[in-house]
Amino acid sequence: MGLDSLRSGLLYNNVVDVWMSLCEEKGWEYTDRMLHVAFIKYLKAEGIPVQKLPVCPPEGGSKGEVAKRTSVLLGDPVKSFVLRTDSKLIERLRSFDPRSRA
Length: 102
Fold this sequence. Notes:
The protein is built from 5 helices and 3 strands.
């Protein structure tokens, strides 16, 4: 499911789902730790608003591991995080290039 599909379903989407959709569009492996960390740093550096939800990230499997890592990197290991996936943010996310983030 690409970023446009996420946007058409919900206005706010889980950061992990957004990450997985971006990876699908770009042909990247969403479990790649270095890419994932670079993406979270990009969100912070760009001042992209990330909202905290009072629920724990899912457990189990590779998606669960990415969700846990996301929560830790965003500062609260027992919360989940969402992004407002409007068209403006989708375009900003598509411009993410991990090679330019060193």
